[in-house]
Amino acid sequence: GDVNRRVGRSAADDLLVEVAQRIRVAAGPAAVVVRLGGDEFAVLLREPDSASVVNAIAETIVRALARPFRFAAGVGVSGSRRAVTVGASIGIACVGHDASADVSLDDVLLQADAAVQRAKARGRGRVEHFDVAVDAPRASDHPLQARRATECRLRTAIAHGGLEVHLQPQVDLPSGMVSGYEALARWSD
Questions:
Q1: pTM for the full model?
Q2: Which positions ≥6 away from 41 have C-beta within 8 Å?
Q3: What is the rounded CA–CA span in Å between residue 167 and residue 180?
Q4: Is 141 a known active-site residue?
Q5: What does the pLDDT look like over 48-58, one tens digit per residue?
Q6: Does the structure show a pLDDT above 90 at 101?
Protein backbone atom coordinates (compact mmCIF):
# COMPACT_ATOMS: atom_id res chain seq x y z
CA GLY A 1 0.00 0.00 0.00
CA ASP A 2 0.94 3.64 -0.14
CA VAL A 3 2.86 4.15 3.07
CA ASN A 4 3.18 7.91 2.48
CA ARG A 5 -0.58 8.51 2.69
CA ARG A 6 -0.99 6.51 5.89
CA VAL A 7 1.69 7.91 8.19
CA GLY A 8 3.13 11.12 6.70
CA ARG A 9 6.31 11.72 4.73
CA SER A 10 9.08 11.52 7.36
CA ALA A 11 7.36 8.69 9.20
CA ALA A 12 7.02 6.85 5.86
CA ASP A 13 10.77 7.14 5.31
CA ASP A 14 11.37 5.86 8.85
CA LEU A 15 8.97 2.98 8.22
CA LEU A 16 10.76 1.96 5.01
CA VAL A 17 14.09 1.98 6.85
CA GLU A 18 12.63 -0.18 9.63
CA VAL A 19 11.06 -2.56 7.09
CA ALA A 20 14.42 -2.91 5.29
CA GLN A 21 16.20 -3.62 8.59
CA ARG A 22 13.69 -6.28 9.59
CA ILE A 23 13.96 -7.92 6.17
CA ARG A 24 17.77 -7.85 6.36
CA VAL A 25 17.80 -9.49 9.82
CA ALA A 26 15.15 -12.08 8.87
CA ALA A 27 16.87 -12.98 5.59
CA GLY A 28 20.22 -13.58 7.26
CA PRO A 29 23.75 -12.35 6.69
CA ALA A 30 24.26 -14.13 3.36
CA ALA A 31 21.25 -12.46 1.72
CA VAL A 32 21.33 -9.25 -0.28
CA VAL A 33 18.31 -7.00 0.34
CA VAL A 34 17.51 -4.26 -2.17
CA ARG A 35 14.66 -1.80 -2.42
CA LEU A 36 13.15 -1.92 -5.89
CA GLY A 37 11.02 1.18 -5.36
CA GLY A 38 8.03 2.29 -3.38
CA ASP A 39 7.41 -0.38 -0.80
CA GLU A 40 8.85 -3.28 -2.83
CA PHE A 41 12.00 -5.11 -1.83
CA ALA A 42 13.93 -8.00 -3.32
CA VAL A 43 15.93 -10.55 -1.36
CA LEU A 44 18.65 -12.32 -3.31
CA LEU A 45 19.97 -15.61 -1.99
CA ARG A 46 23.05 -17.20 -3.47
CA GLU A 47 22.61 -20.95 -3.81
CA PRO A 48 20.24 -21.71 -0.91
CA ASP A 49 20.43 -25.30 0.32
CA SER A 50 16.86 -26.18 -0.64
CA ALA A 51 13.38 -24.89 -1.35
CA SER A 52 12.56 -25.46 2.31
CA VAL A 53 15.34 -23.00 3.28
CA VAL A 54 13.88 -20.40 0.90
CA ASN A 55 10.39 -20.99 2.33
CA ALA A 56 11.66 -20.72 5.91
CA ILE A 57 13.35 -17.39 5.15
CA ALA A 58 10.22 -16.08 3.42
CA GLU A 59 8.01 -17.10 6.37
CA THR A 60 10.48 -15.48 8.80
CA ILE A 61 10.24 -12.23 6.82
CA VAL A 62 6.43 -12.37 6.84
CA ARG A 63 6.40 -12.87 10.63
CA ALA A 64 8.98 -10.10 11.19
CA LEU A 65 6.93 -7.60 9.18
CA ALA A 66 3.65 -8.61 10.86
CA ARG A 67 4.89 -7.22 14.20
CA PRO A 68 3.73 -3.59 14.69
CA PHE A 69 6.14 -0.74 14.02
CA ARG A 70 6.10 2.06 16.60
CA PHE A 71 6.64 5.72 15.71
CA ALA A 72 6.22 9.08 17.41
CA ALA A 73 2.55 10.09 17.20
CA GLY A 74 3.18 13.66 16.09
CA VAL A 75 4.67 17.05 16.83
CA GLY A 76 4.24 18.19 20.41
CA VAL A 77 3.05 14.82 21.70
CA SER A 78 5.59 13.88 24.32
CA GLY A 79 6.37 10.19 24.58
CA SER A 80 3.33 9.15 22.55
CA ARG A 81 3.93 6.33 20.04
CA ARG A 82 1.71 5.15 17.22
CA ALA A 83 1.61 1.53 16.05
CA VAL A 84 1.68 0.91 12.32
CA THR A 85 1.20 -2.52 10.83
CA VAL A 86 2.15 -3.67 7.35
CA GLY A 87 1.36 -6.84 5.50
CA ALA A 88 3.93 -8.68 3.46
CA SER A 89 3.23 -10.65 0.32
CA ILE A 90 6.19 -12.58 -1.04
CA GLY A 91 6.79 -13.98 -4.52
CA ILE A 92 9.65 -16.42 -5.03
CA ALA A 93 11.47 -17.14 -8.28
CA CYS A 94 14.47 -19.42 -8.46
CA VAL A 95 17.20 -19.75 -11.04
CA GLY A 96 18.23 -23.34 -11.65
CA HIS A 97 21.77 -24.63 -11.56
CA ASP A 98 21.62 -25.35 -15.32
CA ALA A 99 24.33 -23.15 -16.81
CA SER A 100 22.73 -23.44 -20.25
CA ALA A 101 19.60 -21.66 -19.03
CA ASP A 102 19.69 -18.08 -20.29
CA VAL A 103 17.85 -16.28 -17.48
CA SER A 104 18.54 -12.63 -16.79
CA LEU A 105 18.02 -10.83 -13.50
CA ASP A 106 15.13 -8.97 -15.17
CA ASP A 107 13.51 -12.32 -16.00
CA VAL A 108 13.84 -13.49 -12.40
CA LEU A 109 12.39 -10.21 -11.09
CA LEU A 110 9.45 -10.50 -13.52
CA GLN A 111 8.83 -14.06 -12.34
CA ALA A 112 9.01 -13.02 -8.68
CA ASP A 113 6.67 -10.11 -9.39
CA ALA A 114 4.13 -12.39 -11.08
CA ALA A 115 4.26 -14.69 -8.03
CA VAL A 116 3.89 -11.77 -5.61
CA GLN A 117 0.85 -10.49 -7.53
CA ARG A 118 -0.74 -13.92 -7.06
CA ALA A 119 0.20 -13.82 -3.35
CA LYS A 120 -1.41 -10.36 -2.98
CA ALA A 121 -4.57 -11.59 -4.69
CA ARG A 122 -4.83 -14.40 -2.14
CA GLY A 123 -4.41 -12.11 0.88
CA ARG A 124 -1.77 -10.68 3.20
CA GLY A 125 0.99 -12.76 4.68
CA ARG A 126 1.23 -15.13 1.72
CA VAL A 127 4.27 -16.71 0.13
CA GLU A 128 3.90 -17.96 -3.45
CA HIS A 129 6.40 -19.57 -5.80
CA PHE A 130 6.54 -18.69 -9.49
CA ASP A 131 4.57 -21.32 -11.38
CA VAL A 132 5.19 -21.39 -15.12
CA ALA A 133 1.71 -22.74 -15.90
CA VAL A 134 -0.07 -20.03 -13.90
CA ASP A 135 2.30 -17.06 -13.91
CA ALA A 136 4.15 -17.19 -17.26
CA PRO A 137 1.44 -15.34 -19.24
CA ARG A 138 1.29 -12.68 -16.52
CA ALA A 139 5.10 -12.26 -16.51
CA SER A 140 5.37 -12.01 -20.31
CA ASP A 141 2.81 -9.18 -20.52
CA HIS A 142 4.09 -7.40 -17.45
CA PRO A 143 4.32 -3.57 -17.47
CA LEU A 144 7.90 -3.85 -16.19
CA GLN A 145 8.89 -5.40 -19.53
CA ALA A 146 7.38 -2.46 -21.41
CA ARG A 147 9.14 -0.02 -19.08
CA ARG A 148 12.49 -1.77 -19.58
CA ALA A 149 12.01 -1.69 -23.37
CA THR A 150 11.24 2.04 -23.20
CA GLU A 151 14.29 2.58 -20.99
CA CYS A 152 16.48 0.75 -23.54
CA ARG A 153 15.14 2.90 -26.40
CA LEU A 154 15.71 6.06 -24.33
CA ARG A 155 19.32 5.06 -23.54
CA THR A 156 19.91 4.50 -27.26
CA ALA A 157 18.39 7.90 -28.05
CA ILE A 158 20.61 9.60 -25.47
CA ALA A 159 23.71 7.85 -26.82
CA HIS A 160 22.88 8.92 -30.40
CA GLY A 161 21.80 12.50 -29.69
CA GLY A 162 18.09 11.74 -30.00
CA LEU A 163 17.01 14.24 -27.36
CA GLU A 164 16.40 17.90 -28.13
CA VAL A 165 16.69 20.58 -25.43
CA HIS A 166 14.12 23.37 -25.57
CA LEU A 167 13.79 26.38 -23.30
CA GLN A 168 10.30 27.31 -22.21
CA PRO A 169 9.74 30.73 -20.64
CA GLN A 170 8.10 31.03 -17.25
CA VAL A 171 5.82 34.06 -17.31
CA ASP A 172 4.58 36.02 -14.31
CA LEU A 173 0.86 36.29 -15.16
CA PRO A 174 0.02 39.61 -13.48
CA SER A 175 2.90 41.50 -15.11
CA GLY A 176 3.35 39.42 -18.26
CA MET A 177 7.14 39.49 -17.66
CA VAL A 178 9.37 36.48 -18.23
CA SER A 179 10.54 35.42 -14.76
CA GLY A 180 12.71 32.48 -15.76
CA TYR A 181 13.12 29.55 -18.09
CA GLU A 182 12.47 25.85 -17.85
CA ALA A 183 14.66 23.42 -19.76
CA LEU A 184 12.76 20.62 -21.44
CA ALA A 185 14.22 17.51 -23.06
CA ARG A 186 12.08 16.28 -25.94
CA TRP A 187 12.36 12.83 -27.39
CA SER A 188 10.78 11.82 -30.68
CA ASP A 189 10.42 8.09 -30.36
A1: 0.61
A2: 19, 20, 23, 33, 34, 35
A3: 10
A4: no
A5: 778 888 889 99
A6: no
